[in-house]
Amino acid sequence: MNRVEMRLLDIDKRKTTFEEVALGYNKKEMLDEASRCLNCKNKPCVSGCLVNIDIPKFIDFLKKDNVDEAYNVISKSSLLPGICGRVCPQETQCEAKCIRGIKGESIAIGRLERYVADNAAKNFVFSESEGKAKVAIIGSGPSGLSCAGTLSTLGYDVTVFEAMHKFGGVLIYGIPEFRLPKTIVSEEIEKLEKLGVKFIKNVVFGKTIDINDLIDEGYKAIFIGCGAGLPNFMGIPGENLNGVYSANEFLTRVNLMKASDERYDTPLGDLGDVVVVGGGNVAMDASRCALRAKAKSVSLVYRRDFEQMPARKEEVLHAQEEGVNFNVLTNPCEILGDELDNIVGVKCVKMELSAPDSSGRRRPVEIKNSQFIKKANTVIMAIGNNPNPLIKNITPAIKLNQKGCIEIDENHMTSLPGVFAGGDIVTGAATVILAMQAGKESAYSIDKYLKNKL
Amino acid sequence: MYEILLAEKLNGSVMKMVISAPLVAKKCLAGQFIILRVDEVGERIPLTIFDYDRKSGTVSIIFQIVGATTRKLSLLKKGDYLFDFVGPLGNPTNTNDINKVLVIGGGVGTAIAFPICKELYESKKEVDAIAGFRNKELVILEDDFRDVTKQFFIMTDDGSYGEKGLVTEKLEKLILSGSNYERVYAIGPLPMMKFVSKVCDKYNIPVIVSMNSIMIDGTGMCGCCRLLVDGKVRFACIDGPEFDGTKVDYDEAIKRNKMYFKEEREKDCNLLRRIDE
After folding, report:
1. A69 and A89 assigned to the same domain
2. Quick check: A265 and B267 CB within 8 A?
3. Which of B77, B2, B68 has the alpha carbon at shortest distance from A202?
4. Scanning every residue of chain B, which has its alpha carbon at the shortest distance from the alpha carbon of A253?
């Protein structure tokens, strides 16, 4: 039996609304898919999961349609299954290790996890804070939430400080509604609140509060999960023209500020013809958001070929289905503007692949005399981020590497004892699940550190 | 939620508000800004801090009604609440190693120039100031400035108050009359800062300007507030808001600040129509 496909929202609806595209399994689909699991003894899938969810065990409960017990199994390892089930790249993690994948299709573990998160009653008993030490979490993105949740189940008194006006970090401002509905994020945050975690918004670490303030207020340990910061630009002429956005800005306008919805005040001019630069998940998100924000056309420009694209295959496919034009082996070299500095086009050059570079990917090189001009009114640069720039001013006691990322030891502790860090501020731009893993591991390290200290 | 403790009009389109924001008041310094959101559908707008009181935990802002968000803000009264108020953001004004300075404010920018004057004055520096307005009706903060300056000059475009002329004319006169300013701070409309910087450059006087770029997060995440300084891309929110006035590409900044001009107008008109109904 083949893997059960997930139903998708009608294609015409997808282009015009921000409703979730992947609709999830119904009960029959879930039971069919769960029944494919061989429940292997050595559980290779678990080793592919960064937070080590006991996957065969929760699927076993699903086979008996016991969703609540399946939820309890997942909760032992992950407090945010509704999010992970949707945005984890399962095909390169748990599902890549699935025995069934050797001869056929692997079990759709992510889809089953999502089914559990969406359908469990979630009536589990919340433990009262056991009066253990106060811990401060900086940032309410994936690493912060996962660290906060884990610490709270260990009995700590946890407070999360967020710089923006909504909680969730990249889950709110970055990942669009059609991939991760914001109600799912707020439900997961409400769950943490019920666990006793306190959330405070509008607090910028390094500006509104600093490490000494937290120490004065009695926090015994601090976890910094303040994420990525300044977006990269290409350094080509015309990047400061009106209508050139970083993906961070564009996605924040659309997702957090809801700029494409007329009921909201944040502006987003007429997008016209949009060119998105990049080949990662963020580029796919930006392209698909632009379509939904009434762009006349959306073209993605990527300097390598389809095979080298870092984006999930599923995201590329969805973007293609929705009408995003893919211009692979193409690189922008100048953004052209009119006398008012509004964009009129992008000068591009064709590329070809040469020998593999240090990353193992074949290096793209320009094809001579292959320049052409692509019509455009909006350009979105989705070519990565630097770490949060405010971190470097906080204290010299926290060592940074050359890229400006925080250096940590094997216990996720920074060079300042009692201060831990994880997520993009340590690794540079990476995935949600990698940040969640770092948050969870940091929580156990904080627990160990505080137990030894007190 | 952040309570509005005082809301008063300073002239036909400029308002002052005192907001209860203890965490911001505890840390803020001259030259820094806050970002606020009026209501749950509101946009995030940056406003430079006018004054603060650490003891009472309050922060004062002064703003001009220029679009839908500032219009909405102006409709709030004492006892109302702002949804969000975050800061202090940006770097404080560097007032070290100088003794004699000139502060120049233009229009509502005068409000931003005030805390710099105050801080310099309180640290026993010799401070002169020039404030430029279109006409007498628009003059604000005159008494506040007189309290914290040695000499204070008001310039109006039409001569209806103070002296007739531009702030740059007064600046040049003061320089030529032998006032040995070690630094000039200029805050106001972009063209004013551009021309003040030109005059300062001519006489080799260091000049600092404060850039009011469009922002969203204000913490170095979105890149929206980028500008060219000395040919390099800088970010007003984390590298500024103050920069060497002679190095800023004003023409580009002027165009960038007009990015949403049309949308702002439309939103403001719609809002006014709703208010009328």
Report:
1. yes
2. yes
3. B2
4. B216
Q: In sequence order, which residues have a C-beta less than 8 Å from that of residue B246 and are 6 or more positions away?
A: B197, B200, B201, B207
Lowest mean pLDDT among A32-41, A122-131, B98-107: A122-131
Q: Is residue A338 less than 8 Å (CB to CB) from chain B?
A: no
Q: Does A263 touch chain B (CB under 8 A)?
A: yes
Range of A54's domain?
11-119
Same domain, A216 and A323: no
The complex scores an ipTM of 0.92
A399 is a domain residue? yes
Q: Looking at the structure, tell me whether residues A379 and A392 fall in a common domain.
A: no
> Which tokens in the block code for residue B133?
């307005």
Residues in B whose CB is inside 8 Å of some CB of A read 23-24, 27, 37-38, 41-44, 68-69, 72, 83-89, 216-217, 219-224, 226-228, 233, 235, 238, 252, 255-256, 258-260, 262-264, 267
CB B168, CB B196: distance < 8 Å: yes
pLDDT tens, A22-71?
999 999 999 999 999 999 989 999 999 988 999 999 999 999 999 999 99
Chain A residue numbers touching B85 (CB-CB < 8 A): 202
**Domain range B2-89, its CATH number among 2.40.50.140, 2.40.30.10, 3.40.50.720, 2.60.40.10:** 2.40.30.10
The answer to whether B86 contacts A208, with C-beta atoms less than 8 Å apart, is yes
Amino acid, single-letter form, for residue A450: L
Contact B223 A233 (CB under 8 A): yes
Measured CA to CA in angstroms, residue A267 lies from A196, A284, A400, B269 at distances of 37, 22, 36, 14
From A350, A383, A416, give the residue that closes a domain.
Answer: A383
Please determine, for residue B83, whether its predicted confidence score (pLDDT) is greater than 60: yes
List, for residues A86-114, the tens digit of each pLDDT value: 988 898 899 999 999 988 999 999 999 99
Examine the pLDDT at A376 and tell me if it is beyond 60: yes
* Cβ pairs A/B, distance under 8 A: 115
CATH of the domain at A409: 3.50.50.60
Confidence of residue B169 (pLDDT cuts 50, 70, 90): very high
Window 192-211 of A: residues touching B by CB (8 A cutoff) are 201-204, 207-209
Interface touch A165/B89, C-beta < 8 Å: no
Does residue A124 sit within a domain? no
Distance from CA of A337 to the nearest CA of B (A): 12
Q: Are residue A241 and residue A110 in the same domain, yes or no?
A: no
CB contact under 8 A, B220 and A228: no
Number of structural domains in chain A: 3
Contact in structure between A115 and A138 (CB atoms under 8 Å): no
For chain B, which residues make up each domain, given as ranges? 2-89, 100-210
* A204 with B263: Cβ contact below 8 A: no
Among candidates A163, A229, A265 on the partner chain, residue whose Cβ is nearest the Cβ of B68? A265
Residues of B in contact with A246 (CB under 8 A): 222-224
Residue A376's identity, in one-letter code, is: A
Helix intervals (H) in chain B: 22-27, 68-74, 109-122, 142-147, 167-176, 190-202, 236-239, 250-257, 261-276
Do residues A378 and A372 touch, judged by C-beta distance below 8 A?
no
Nearest to B260 among A207, A264, A267 (CB): A267
User: Could you tell me the fold of the domain covering B100-210?
Assistant: Rossmann fold (3.40.50)
Cα–Cα distance, A407 to A400 (Å, whole number): 5
- Report the C-alpha gap between A430 and A281 in whole angstroms: 10
The partner residues of B51 in beta bridges, in order of sequence, read B60
Does a structural domain hold residue A244?
A: yes
One-letter amino acid at A384 equals G
